[in-house]
Amino acid sequence: MLRSGASRLASSSFMTPMIRPTSTALNRSVSVQWNAKLTSMATQRPRLAPMARLGPLQATLRRRTMADKIDREAEKKYAHEKLEPTPETVTSSSTMQPVFGGKSAGKPLSMPEPDMTAGLRGDIKTIRDTFDLSEVPRQAYYIGLAGVLPYLATCLSTVACAYDINHDGYGYFLSAKNAETLLHILEPIQIGYGAVILSFLGAIHWGLEFGGYGGYHGYRRYAIGVIAPAVAWPTMLMPVEYALISQFCAFMGLYYVDTKATAQAWTPPWYAIYRFVLTGIVGASIAISLMGRGEVADKLSPIPGAVDRIKTLREGAGEELAKHEEALRVQNAAKQAESEGGEGRKSRAT
């Protein structure tokens, strides 16, 4: 088959650019097989919009100029060139290939399968980034982890004592009586250590203010270091359960303040994630301690707390004061009676 029809179609398209020919399936299949030169020439034909803006005279001159640029020698060559049939590349889906990604040698297009584990890998990456402490200085990292060891020790000891108390007779580690005694010893240690740590976390902001990290913010930053110990130390006077709950809330609140401070560049960028990990360990230890104590709350003998001791001290002081006043009254009455007896004897003698 000769390409005379194709060349006439190309010539007519250059000569009449104002009318765009209607594409058919046959024309599309023929146009795909033209060589690169004819295709490049076809893509350079004028569009409707630029020609429409020209006047009649300018449009006529423009079309004649473009018609003179047609390569007549190439047209003659293409007119006598014979097309090579390639039926092996024609399939039921071959007409979709230029639209959806090009030629694939007659093979049907295959859509890539979705990655079903992409979401899971993204979640794992998020967790790794959350607990990534690579930017934390090694000294602060090791000392911070060492600082939570007392909390872990008191937490595990509380659970062990609760287990022994919860079993009749001898427990797994200690007897019930010894376990209860040890549990009462652990109470002030855990609460006192929590108050110390809260005060220390507040004092960090004083150090940052002294050093001018992130600028000087005055009372707003100093207030963090003042409020933290003001909340922590009164818990020493509370019952054990209320003290642990109060310190848990204080740790969570101070962590929220630290994250806000990190977002405002008041602290180093790694400080928020550093506090997240350490506060998570401390919060879990307090929660486990509360659960352990809750299992044996009805089996523990009541022990006077700080408030009870203060009340006892006041009551004892009142009793001592009353006894002292009573002794003074008796002594004064005896002196008065003695003085009156002496005066009576003198009057009788005279």
From TrEMBL:
Spans traversing the lipid bilayer: 140-165, 191-210, 222-245, 272-291
UniProt KW keywords: Membrane, Transmembrane, Transmembrane helix
Region (Disordered): 328-350
Protein name: Uncharacterized protein
InterPro entries to which the protein is assigned, alphabetical: DUF3429 (IPR021836)
Organism: Westerdykella ornata
rRNA processing found in the keyword field: no
Coiled-coil zones: none
Pfam families: DUF3429
Keyword Membrane: yes
